[in-house]
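During the reporting period the student researcher (J.K.) took over the structure-prediction task from the postdoctoral fellow and processed the backlog of single-chain submissions. One of the processed entries is reproduced below for the supervisory committee.
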Amino acid sequence: MSLDRRDFMLATVGGAAASIALASDHASAQTATAKLAGGTVYTGDTVDGKLVVSTLGVADLELGKLHRLYFRGVKGPSGQPWLVSVAVLRGAKPGKRVTLVSGVHGDEMSSIHAVQTIIKGLDPAAMSGTVMAVFDVSRPAIESMGRRWPNSGRGADLVDLNRVWPGDENGPGAPARHAGLLFNRLIRPNSDYVLDFHTAGTGLDAAAFHLAKMDVPEVRAMAELFPIDQIFDNPGYPGLLTDALDQVGIPAFTPEIGNARRLDLTMIPLFVEGTMNVLKLHGIIDGPMRRTGRDTRIFVGNSLFPVLATAGGIVEHLVKLTDTVSPGQKIAIQRDMFGEIVAEYTSPVDGEIGGLRSDATSEPGNVLAFILFDQATSSGAEAYPE
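J.K. obtained the following C-alpha cells:
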C-alpha cells in the first residue's frame, strides 16, 4: 500500500502521538456509529433557535411537523464545526423517506432555491412518510460562491466534494471527513431515495436535464416524471454522491438546473413540479400527476461529447440549447481581436445541444459545447462537470 504526502507525514513526524490520535478518532467514530442505532445525538448546542445534531434519526422526530436543525460537520481551520442546514418534514403517517440534497458545490444557487421551494410547498400534517432537505452541504465553498471546497491542509487545495463520496470520517482531509460524516450519520440512515440537485459548472449554460442511471428501474421511474429537456443516461463513477448511494442500495439521481451562480427562475419550477410528482409516486403526498417527461418529449442519450476550444478568442455560438445537430454541422466560430476567424467548430455526432459556454471568450482547452447523443454501445461512465 502506498502513502500519499499527508499520510506519510502522519506516520513519520507524529510518531506514537499521531498513532494514538488516529486510534482515538477511530474509536470515537465507532462509538458514534453505535449510537446511530439508538437514534439522534444532540450536541447540546442551539444556533439561531435551531438544535444541533451530530447524528440524526428522523424516526425520533415528532410526527406531522417541520423540524429545522443544524448538522455538525467537520471542523474548520478555526476549530469551529461547519454546520449544515437540514429541514425534516415528518409526515403524520408512516411511509417512504425521500432526501433532497443541494449545495454540494458552492456556486449552485438554483439547486438550493429549488429545494427551498419544494419544502415550502409541503404540509407535513398531510404527508405520509418523510422528506428531508439538506441545503448547504459544502458551506465553505458557498461562502465564497466557489464550486470547490477550499481545503487548507495542503496550501491552496480546492477539492470537489462530489468526487470524494462516501467520504471517510477518519480520512486525511477535511472534505473527505465532512462527506463521511454526512453520508454515515445523516443521508444514508434516513433515506429510501435521494435526489441530489446540482447545476452546470461556472461558465456553462445547460439545458434542464438529469444525470441518471436509467437501467435502475426505481431511478428511471423517478427521472421520467420531470417535465424537462434531457436525461444523460450515465452509469456514474466513483466519488459521486449518487454512485456512493447506489453502492449501498439507495436509488438516487442528479437533477441539473441550468447554470451556476444565479437563480434560474424559469427552470426551477420544472424541477419543483417533477419532484412533487416523485413524492406522489412514493405515496408521500396525494394528488394527480402534473406534467412529466412525456409532455416535454424528453430526449435520453447515453453519451456526452465535449467540443473543446482549439484557439483563444471570442466565441460565437451558432446553435442554442436543445437544438438538434448532425455530423459536420457548424455549431460555433471563434475570432481573434482583429475580428478574424481563427477556429470553426462542428458537431461530430447526431444529438442535441446539452450545454454551451456562457463566457464570451475562451482559451484553448475549455469546453465550448456539450452534445448529448445516443450510441448503440455505451462507452461506460463519462465525467460531467455538474
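The committee noted the following: Residues 1-37 have pLDDT under 50 and may be disordered.
J.K. will present the remaining backlog at the next meeting.
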